[in-house]
Design brief:
Length: 109
């Protein structure tokens, strides 16, 4: 009788915990959440032009003239270089570069 009760107790214990076990082939739950957080509300930012002089640097992103410190599309312009613009979006640094056609155009003096 004791062995029967012990067997039933062990059987019920294992069947109870197996219901809460995750599928081993399923990715962890935290990876799905972090993936969805990366793409939330960031509109595409297209760097079209960079203009620089001794006094100031400006860039054209999505047909809008921007300077360092300005916010566009939810991202803050952190740095403007000759070929790229670095923006900060939700604590992440993203570097925007110009398209190939924009780089190839050189204005003659």
């Amino acid at each position: 009788m004791f062995n029967l009760l012990k067997s039933l107790l062990l059987l019920s214990l294992f069947s109870f915990t197996s219901g809460f076990a995750q599928d081993p082939m399923r990715p962890p739950s935290w990876s799905a959440e972090s993936q969805s957080e990366r793409v939330v509300n960031l509109e595409p930012l297209n760097l079209q032009q960079v203009l620089s002089s001794k006094n100031r640097k400006v860039a054209v992103i999505n047909d809008t003239l921007v300077v360092e410190g300005q916010v566009i599309g939810g991202a803050k312009v952190a740095e403007i270089t000759d070929n790229s613009v670095r923006v900060i979006y939700k604590g992440r640094s993203i570097i925007l570069t110009m398209t190939t056609t924009a780089k190839e155009y050189n204005r003659e003096k």
